Amino acid sequence: MSEALPALPSSPVLRASWLRSREHGLAPDQHLPDGILARTDFAEHIEANARLLAFSRPAIENLYRQIGGPSSMVLLADERGLILSALGNTEFLDRAARVALSPGAEWSEASVGTNAIGTALHTGHTVAVRGAEHYLDRNRFLTCIATPILAPGGGMLGILDVSTDVRANISHAGALLRTTAELIEHSLIEHLEGGFVTIRFHSRAELVDGPLEALAVFDEERRLVASNRAARSLLKLDRAHPSADFDHCFATGWATLLGLATGNGGAFPLRAVDGRSFVGRAALRDRSIAPRAPRPPPAQCAGEPGPGGQLAQMSQSDPRVAAAIATLRANAAAHVPLLIEGETGTGKTHLIRAFHADHRRHADAPLVIIDGSSLHGAGASAELADRLGQAAEGTLFVVEIDALPNAMQRALFGTRTSRGATRIIAATRKRVAHLADSGRLELAHFAAAGGLQLSLPPLRERDDFDELVRLFVREACPERAIHVSPDALTLLRRHRWPGNLSELRSQLRLTLALMGDNANELCPQDIPPELFDDDSGENR
């Protein structure tokens, strides 16, 4: 650090960024790296950010119309600085692409030094970088302004950026940029999946029900699950990582609020815990149909399932379930055989139906499901071959794979290379390791074909039990919102659920049916005592 940096910016923020750029080993005159992701890798980033892309698109188009000018563009980047989309004048887009300012390139400080996107990511605030303030020489024809897009639950979701020719005057862009980011955040919360009650509030009555209102979403256990910048400011919460429950935010009682939320939806006085007064509106969230993001433009998601894909609708709050879904998605194009272990009722068939729907090669690609225990006798091999033929260009899903004779297991996985368009998926209720050790499952051909193993945890071991209960309650009673009390959840967790998800869903449907059409809360007394008759004493 003894050698002085040339032409250090006067801004303390940018000066610190230049020093970080040097620590990253960057030189101002270094050559352009190969920073564009491969098509398949970029497609994965597009899928991971599908909701952000979809809900930001209208706001970005409006921002570009207001910015105007032949030498400007609006960029959307993810939380690591990878550019997801670019909208602008064709000639300027081509010019920017020469310095990799285009979709698929990473613009973090570690990659390209001081720039608006990367420095906004590092600081968490709006940043402007003009001309020579860029660390790399090749980027100094640009003036860029970037601001963070905050995630509904906390943290940073991405970066919104306006970039122009250095000679252009975009002094008005900063305010427009921040307002657009807030509109995107507002839209993401409005279409959030989950949550129990939404509160709209502000100290100024005229701002409620408008884009500048404060928004806060709480779950059944009164925890804050989503909020926008205005809510975090008014409630004095951490801007980046808000964490609170209802009773630490408002003095108005929870029961009073729920009564207002189920009423006529009119405005009411809302008091904060520090005595301040707001005007508020509250409403139970309509979760009869899970909100889905509009599909991004085809150019942004070619060949990829949209944000409403069936896998996206499955609960992924449990790390083992999330890992299984991530593995399926990552290997969707490879068509390697898959082997899934999981107890009865853990959702193996539901998972594969969703996977097939999202990643089939064409709309008519078949999904053929066969029970391995049904294949026996002299005609078993011929029947398996017939089912393989039916599944051509689609998916053959064999449940109870360990019930097949070893020779048929070898034949099944050995046909994969000659039937490259047919995906082979097998499942078992037992532990794969135990089956392999006992000789009931042969994995040599499976391994030779590059097979992957997945595991679905039993319900009693899942981290998302409460979320699943609420999901199944919404499915069973889509016409009305039903609150699941914390005590009811505690009681339900005491059961071991040997039938796993299937048993939980069936039991909740029965319980809700017995409660009647006017009930709006699932309480401990609604849960039949006989549910626990077969449980051991340690679970009582």
Structure description:
With 540 residues, the protein is an alpha/beta fold. The protein is built from 19 helices and 17 strands. The C terminus is likely disordered. This is GAF domain-containing protein.
Write the layout of secondary structure elements.
Elements: H1 12-23, H2 39-48, H3 50-67, E1 72-78, E2 83-88, H4 90-97, H5 109-112, H6 116-123, E3 127-130, E4 142-150, E5 156-165, H7 173-190, E6 197-202, E7 214-218, E8 224-227, H8 229-234, H9 246-249, H10 254-261, E9 268-271, E10 277-284, H11 319-330, E11 338-341, H12 348-359, E12 367-371, H13 380-390, E13 395-399, H14 406-414, E14 423-428, H15 432-437, H16 444-448, E15 452-455, H17 465-476, E16 483-484, H18 486-493, H19 500-515, E17 521-522
Parallel strand pairs: 11-14, 11-15, 12-13, 13-14, 16-17
Antiparallel strand pairs: 1-2, 1-5, 3-4, 4-5, 6-7, 6-10, 7-8, 9-10
Helix pairs in contact: 3-7, 17-19
